[in-house]
Amino acid sequence: MYTEKEAISRVNSQLEWEVDRLFYDKEEFKIRSNGSKKLHKIYIPTNNTIPFYYLDLLHEYIHALHYEALHPSLLDNGYQGILPTGANTEIKEYFNAAMDWFATGQLTKLCNQKTLQQMEFDYRNIGKVFCPAKTVREHLIVGLVSAQSVRWLKQGPLPGEKIEQVVDAFHRVNPENPTMEKLYLLVSVLFNVFKDYKLKLVKNNGQNSWKIEKNNIPIAHYSQFHETEEK
User: Fold this and answer.
1) What sections of 149-179 are H helices per DSSP?
2) Parallel, antiparallel, or unpaired for β 18-24 and 39-45?
3) Is the pLDDT reported for residue 72 higher than 60?
4) What is the DSSP letter of 76?
5) Does the N-terminal or the C-terminal CB of the chain have fewer CB atoms within 10 Å?
């Protein structure tokens, strides 16, 4: 096991793309990866007193590593993150939740004790914010925290029928060593929980392509990505 800073250095040494660290005044970490430019932009809060500050920074470096591992099959929409052309931001929540599940699997390998402490902190506090969960985003956040706590802390899931279904969906996919097949399966089963979207694997010019449908109407295609500059 490593300290958070040691783990960040270790993951950073495995990255092949350039990393641009940008400090800003917000309280959340985020990453924007650009496959065509082979560049990761990691946005880092200037306030380093945030709980689990360096673990959250490590989380973003792990996302960078996973993006590179899945690239070019998993392309990005410029600096807007992983989002198919034509898809809405709600769909992005599903993909973010799936990638966070995979990031957690890596975190437990690198900084197990600290990661378990963060899981316990989140488990104790998430219900104060999002219970009962109302939106898809809230269900995915609470479900992810519950799934992590059930798997690694042996805690029971937070209450809610949909929450339990989300937990079951996460547990269908091993979070270690993410692949496109695992990502496809996880997003598919998460879609099935809410019945709003369907994910299909189709052939496009001889290549596997993902098609997202809502009410049987195609709304986005993973072969239709384009690059845009950050706004």
Assistant:
1) 161-171
2) parallel
3) no
4) -
5) C
